Amino acid sequence: MCGITGYIGYKNADKVLFDCLKRLEYRGYDSCGIALVQSDGIKVIKDTCRVKELEAKHKKVNSKIGIGHTRWATCGEPTAANAHPHSSCGDKVAVVHNGTLDQFIPLKEDLINKGHVFKSETDTEIIPHLIEENMKTMSADDAVKKALGTIQGAFAVAAIVQNENKLYVGKVGCPLVIGVGDSECYVASDSSALSKYTNRFIYLKDHDTAVLTPDSIKLFRNGKETEPEIELLDKNLNDAELHGYPHFMLKEIHEEPRVITTTIDDLDDLATLLATIDKDLGGIRMIKTLACGSSYYASLMMRYLAPQILGIPTFAELGSEYCSLTKGQKGTLAIAISQSGETADTIKAAKAAKANGYKLMAITNVKNSQLARAADYVWTTKAGPEVSVAATKTVLSQIAALYSLILAHPSLSKLNKEDAMDTFRKLPDQINKIFENVDSIISVASYLADFKDAIYIARGLNYPIALEGALKLKEISYIHGEGYAAGELKHGPFALLGKEVPVIAIVSHDENYDSLVTNLREVKTRQAPLIAISEENDLTISNLADYVITVPHTKPILSPILNLVVVQLLAYYTAVKKGNPVDFPRNLAKTVTVE
Ligand code: G6P
């Protein structure tokens, strides 16, 4: 959580910092600030507002070096005093920090005893004071390096020091990337925040520190100066612009046909990776998935698919609830799924599984993420950067990757594979059809917007989609949504049914169809408004439901992908109708780096 950025070069730093912060707001947005090096000292401006509001208040300053921060409060409430940057006495040093520091109280007390005066409740504020204290006996470069070696916990830090034309950075356990320009350097929590400025990046490793000037990058790894490795990123895959869409969420949903196509294009590479895993494990005999949030709902798909199609027992675990008590046996594979690759609970569970003898595969959208680095095998979903806090195209990319794993598995017969591929290839056009018929979704969303509660139901493979649909509704439309396996409705939730609680049913045209129709009749009997997401021309459903959103016909096994797009759009248009801040819902952050 929290986004950090920095700039040193020939451009006006304030403009660059505000621009980058707007792209980092998905990491937290309860307060923000920037600090700029000026000839007469360091100027800090910060407040409990969104970046564009702070920018509007700010009077332009002629400075070419600065740092910026957008916050999701962890240590200290979201107040102006707790907002970053934090500075030392007399604003000689300013620091922005993403992460949480352990055992900072003794350090703070020691600094207070030495005469330092603190202005906030944050853990971060010890860093500028430590740097300033160190500078009494050493150069600024050494003082920063020493301070970053003293603090403990997880951090990505950028610092500026009065009278030093340098930008200092370092990290342990939180992401930090340097963007390399011509006579300028950028810093950010992720590369997509810098995509407008450069496609050349240096990804810092844990315990790296670096000193940046407009023309030089001194990187220190394990204390030794090391030649930095510059990676070139494809601009299209790093694109985080709105391109005319009113919200990133809508733009990202509209990228979903492309995500399916990319997944299909990569199928041979995935088959090669799977063959390696299969060989290393002597055949996959059991799978355990580990994930949080929407990624957990995506992972639930594997619990249905792998046993049904491949006969491999599969267990889906929440990263935050994983009990690492069972030892991995021969042939057991843990698959950790995380779009950011940074979710603390998922990483902790993945490392615990590995320590317990599981081979670890990571499915992530961020190639250089912590999760990717911890894994034995990495599959990168190429969904491109996702800005909206509510995950959409990345969830679809994870589900598509899990289908691909099934398709790529050597035990699937050639005939079954070809048949499934034909259906898979039709999905991008079918998703586009859903976009063309969006009016029916918009009108249901207008109706839904007046309710306080809603219940999603489904059976079998579509049950994870019901859970995800309810989560999306909560996240962005602030309607209390619950997802239930339809058969469970009568074991409690029935008590809630009535005119005030609509039920949204995802109808699967498979072996569960008859039981689901029975459940829908039960719902209607309780007078609950019924919205069905179903294939075209299903008279039984259109007679039963008050509203029907139709999806194109596909093989039942692939129907969750099309239904996922519908539930995402339904949540989106409901939130729009309510006038909610779709991309930045209250109290949430996209990347959750705390347990
Ligand atoms: C946060 C986001 C969710 C996301 C979850 C897991 O809560 O708001 O959209 O599903 O984290 O994130 P991950 O990066 O691990 O997929």
Explain what this protein looks like in three dimensions:
The structure is a single chain. The chain has 18 helices and 25 strands. The protein is an alpha/beta fold and 595 residues long. The chain has three domains: 3-236, Glutamine Phosphoribosylpyrophosphate, subunit 1, domain 1; 247-425, Rossmann fold (3-Layer(aba) Sandwich); 433-581, Rossmann fold (3-Layer(aba) Sandwich). The strands form four sheets. It has an eight-stranded antiparallel β-sheet, with helices on one face. Strands 5-6-7-8-12-13-14 form a seven-stranded antiparallel β-sheet. The chain has a five-stranded parallel β-sheet with strand order 17-16-18-19-20, sandwiched between helices. The protein is globular and about 80 Å long. The mean pLDDT is 94.
Question: Could you provide a short overview of the structure?
Answer:
With 595 residues, the chain is of the alpha/beta class.
Percent strand equals: 15-25%
Assign a percent range to the helix content.
25-40%
Mean pLDDT: 94
| Basic shape | globular
Query: How many strands in all?
Result: 25
Topology:
Layout: E1 3-8, H1 13-24, E2 31-38, E3 41-47, H2 51-57, E4 65-71, E5 86-87, E6 93-102, H3 104-113, H4 126-134, H5 140-150, E7 152-161, E8 167-172, E9 177-180, E10 185-188, E11 200-203, E12 209-213, E13 216-221, E14 224-226, E15 231-232, H6 248-254, H7 256-265, H8 267-281, E16 286-291, H9 293-310, E17 314-318, E18 332-338, H10 344-355, E19 359-364, H11 370-374, E20 377-380, H12 393-408, H13 414-436, H14 438-448, E21 453-458, H15 463-477, E22 480-485, E23 503-506, H16 513-525, E24 530-535, H17 539-544, E25 547-551, H18 559-577
Parallel strand pairs: 16-17, 16-18, 18-19, 19-20, 21-22, 21-23, 23-24, 24-25
Antiparallel strand pairs: 1-4, 1-10, 2-3, 2-4, 5-6, 6-7, 7-8, 8-12, 9-10, 9-11, 11-15, 12-13, 13-14
Helix pairs in contact: 3-4, 4-5, 7-12, 7-13, 8-12, 9-12, 9-15, 13-18, 14-18, 15-18
The structure holds 6-O-phosphono-alpha-D-glucopyranose.
